[in-house]
Amino acid sequence: QVQLVQSGGGLVQPGGSLRLSCVASGFQFSSTTANWYRQAPGKERELVASDRIATTGSSTYYAGAVKGRFTISRDNAKNTVYLQMNSVKFEDTAVYYCWAPNSWGQGTQVTVSS
Questions:
Q1: What are the beta bridge partners of residue 70?
Q2: Which of 69, 97, 104, 106 has its CA 20 to 30 A from that of 79?
Q3: Residue range 25-46, pLDDT digits in tens
Q4: In angstroms, rounded to a whole number, what is the distance separating the alpha carbons of residues 98 and 113?
């Protein structure tokens, strides 16, 4: 059974850091593209970061709003993808979701508040 289980959300102050985790089961995360999305209240879900794997090679993508502050990474031994969030801002408040082909994580709330 393909499943993604997230952890690591919570409350963080502006300028702080937080790391989200997404553990995969039922498939090897190392062989697929992994994405992080977020959805803020009243807004559409948006792609935040992507670690893309293709036959031509791998590449990463970051939305402009998070570039230079967020980092997507993998630990293949743990079958886990991370989203390191640094220098967070109020506007980073959202529910964050990890994604792999045909599977979504359950979502985790990140709230940036002083």
A1: 85
A2: 69
A3: 999 988 899 999 999 999 999 9
A4: 23
